[in-house]
Amino acid sequence: MNKVLFGIKNVHVAKLIESNGVITYDTPFAVPGATGFSPDPQGEESVFYADNIIYFRANTNQGYQGDLVVATLPKQFLIDIYGRTEDSNGAIIENSNDKQSRFALIFEADGDEKNRRFVYWDCSAARPSRAYNTKQQSVTPGTDSVSITIAPRSSDNAIGTYLEPTTENQAVYDTFFTQVYEKDETASV
Question: How far does CA 169 lie from the centroid of its chain?
Fold first, then answer.
């Protein structure tokens, strides 16, 4: 059992495809150079008072919102997720009519005992902000910061999961970045 988690690595993204209410994913691709991810819970608690007590309480879970910071977004992310195009010279063209795609976000966090692998199934990304820094006595690299919204998946309201390796799930853990993990429906609850 992990007492602490630290770091982020092995970030991957898989384009989400929805057709007639059925969701599938393209093969995940790597997004190297992650320096941080900070998802904050979205939703609220509603409280109803009666008889001078909290009579009813409801919590809404609307997923997460957070910033993914990477050294630079790879070309495949710009094309597959942001809908940008590449011309014959290799220039990546941004257009106001680009159609963005939803995606699964997959990554690994180091633990003091076991590395935990995460997947969030239904994400969307705002356009990235970029820091450009002048060179001084030392070089401070710029980064791309992407605001990511993680929503409940429209097909089943699933948001995300994580997996730590065990003897029983080692094969699944080892292939976690080759396809988007889905719940094992045969597993007991």
Answer: 22
Round to whole Å and give the CA distance between 37 and 144: 12
Average pLDDT over the chain, rounded to an integer: 89
Q: What is the pLDDT of residue 127?
A: 93
Q: Global pTM?
A: 0.86
**The pLDDT value given to residue 7:** 81
Beta pairing class for 116-125 and 22-25: unpaired
What distance in Å separates the CA atoms of residue 57 and residue 49, rounded to the nearest whole number?
Answer: 9
SS3 string, the chain, reads CCCCEEEEEEEEEEEEEEECCEEEECCCEECCCEEEEEEEECCCEEEEEECCEEEEEEECCCCEEEEEEECCCCHHHHHHCCCCEECCCCCEECCCCCCCCCEEEEEEEEECCCCEEEEEEEEEECCCEECCCCCCCCCCCCCEEEEEEECCCCCCCCCEEEECCCCCCHHHHHCCCCCCCCCCCCCCC
